[in-house]
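Key result, reporting period 2: structure in, sequence out.
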C-alpha cells in the first residue's frame, strides 16, 4: 500500500509539471514563507530572529538549472527576535538602518544542480551593501494542489554570511556578536 501511495504521488507530481524544458514561474507565497537568522552572542548562546512578508518569484526550467532564476525581497520592518529592545537596535542605523534601507534583496546570477539539491549563486543586498552569496537549497517538494486549487511546492535554502562583509553592526566586536550569521529561508511557492 505504501508503494502505491508513493507511486501515485510521483505520478501526480509529474502531471503537475509542464513539459520538460518549458519555463515555469512560481510566486513566493508571503503568508507561508519566512526567513530566519541566527548569530552567536558572547560565544555562549545563539540568538535567533525572523522576518516575514517575503516576496518574489522563482523561474524554474526542469532539467536545465542554468535557465533558473530567483528574486526575493525581505521586509526589514518585520524583524523579530522576541525582544523589543534588540529589535529596535537591529532596525537602527548600526544594523539594518530600516529608515534608509527597508528591504533586503536577493537576485540570483546562476543556479547549479548538486547531489543534495541546488546551489543558487546571487547577489544579496543588506543595508545598501551588495555581496555575492551562495544559497544551498534542498530539492523542492513534489508539486501538489494547494488550498485554493493552485499548484504549490516548497523548499528550504540556507547560507552563512559574514556581517563584516556587509558593514553590518561594525561597532560590535565579534567577541560580543559573531561575525558569521546563518540565514535560512523556507519558501512556499505557487505556480503562475
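The corresponding designed sequence is given below.
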Amino acid at each position: 500500500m505504501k508503494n502505491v501511495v508513493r507511486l501515485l504521488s510521483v505520478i501526480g507530481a509529474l502531471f503537475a509539471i509542464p513539459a520538460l524544458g518549458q519555463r515555469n514561474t512560481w510566486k513566493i507565497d508571503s503568508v507561508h514563507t519566512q526567513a530566519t537568522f541566527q548569530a552567536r552572542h558572547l560565544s555562549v548562546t545563539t540568538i535567533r530572529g525572523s522576518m516575514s512578508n517575503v516576496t518574489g518569484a522563482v523561474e524554474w526550467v526542469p532539467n536545465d538549472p542554468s535557465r533558473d532564476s530567483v528574486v526575493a525581497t525581505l521586509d526589514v520592518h518585520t524583524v523579530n527576535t522576541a525582544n523589543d529592545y534588540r529589535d529596535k537596535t537591529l532596525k537602527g542605523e548600526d544594523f539594518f538602518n530600516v529608515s534608509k534601507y527597508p528591504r533586503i534583496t536577493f537576485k540570483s546570477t546562476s543556479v547549479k544542480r548538486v547531489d543534495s539539491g541546488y546551489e543558487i549563486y546571487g547577489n544579496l543586498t543588506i543595508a545598501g551593501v551588495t555581496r555575492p552569496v551562495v544559497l544551498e537549497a534542498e530539492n523542492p517538494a513534489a508539486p501538489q494542489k494547494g488550498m485554493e486549487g493552485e499548484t504549490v511546492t516548497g523548499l528550504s535554502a540556507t547560507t552563512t554570511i559574514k556581517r563584516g562583509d556587509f558593514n553590518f553592526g561594525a561597532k560590535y566586536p565579534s567577541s560580543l556578536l559573531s561575525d558569521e550569521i546563518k540565514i535560512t529561508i523556507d519558501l512556499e511557492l505557487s505556480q503562475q
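The radius of gyration is 18 Å. The first strand starts at residue 24 and ends at 28. This case is discussed further under Risks and Mitigation.
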